[in-house]
Amino acid sequence: MTDKATEIAPKIDVVAQTGKMINKMSSMDFNTILYEWIIPYGTKILLAIAIFVIGRFLARIISTLLGKAALTSTRNEMLQSFITSISYFLLLLIVVIASLSQVGINTSSLVALIGAAGLAIGLSLQNSLQNFAAGVMLLIFEPFRKGDLIETSGMSGVVEKMGLLVLELRTGDNKTVLLPNGKVFSDKIVNYSNNPTRRIDFTFDIAYGSNLKNAKEVIQRILENNDYVLKDPAPVVAVGTLGSDSVQLIARPWVQTTNYWVAYWDILEKIQLEFDNLSISTTEDDQTDLHLKSGTLDPKGESQI
Q: What confidence tens digit (pLDDT) does each residue in 225-241 have?
């Protein structure tokens, strides 16, 4: 009986205290409620709102300035976007904590709670954190910039934007591809735009019955007279391989990186048209003729019967 009385006693005290508070508030006049409750707590709430609104505005301005400073020092638009985003998030977190502190909430407990929640979220989002860390490393090592044509993870395209977790590419047929930063950082990255000049590699298989000397002269003349081909280094035309049914000619002109595909298509078309005019035969890929005899296929044309 004593134990039950002990358990009920605290409940009775709470109910009694609540009743006393209600009675006290009901007995208060308007002026008392105004000066003891509305004004003090209303002021704190208004100050908290003001801190949040002004703080968020300042956080946006500061993060933007930091991003512009990064752009000025590095000329990297992706780094600018990254620093702007992460600095705004951190500053906004500080503003929220300051606003809650003004209301009277114990922010030390809140910070501990945020830390514990961050640890739990981090454990559950390991892949996302890996992508985030990879994004930071890509920004530090800077293997590419916005507008560069790159090839990575089996995809090629122009770099549009690098976010906190993914890299955005625009392909040649104007499709948008999102690649995880972790996959990009761990894979091979080929940057086609990093250097001002590139070499075009042509290969022509000339049939043995055609005039090899004329074929070389045609290619050399077209390369020397082409406006896209650089004079230094000079283009190279040489015999690459003596195949079973053709002679392989290689041509190695250098062009400006921005003119690569225009030069490639222009040179290839002119060489083929000139070959046609001079009756210079080019061969297709190796092929095997199949002969049908007595219902049996034999690559050598011999009957298997």
A: 999 999 999 999 999 99
Q: How far apart, in whole angstroms, are the C-alpha atoms of residue 279 and residue 254?
A: 27
Q: Which residues contact 93 (CB under 8 A, 6 or more apart)?
A: 114
Residue 41: how many CB atoms within 10 A of its CB? 12
- Separation CA 197–CA 256 (nearest Å): 4
Inform me whether the pLDDT recorded for 61 exceeds 70: yes
Structural domains for the chain: 27-128 (1.10.287.1260), 144-191 (2.30.30.60), 197-278 (3.30.70.100)
List, edge to edge, every strand of the sheet that includes 236-242. 202-207, 246-252, 236-242
Instruction: Give the tens place of pLDDT for each residue, 137-161.
Output: 888 788 888 889 999 988 999 999 8
- Torsion angle defined by CA atoms of residues 44, 48, 50 and 52, in that order, rounded to the nearest 10 degrees: 180
Q: Residue with structure tokens 């930063």?
A: 181
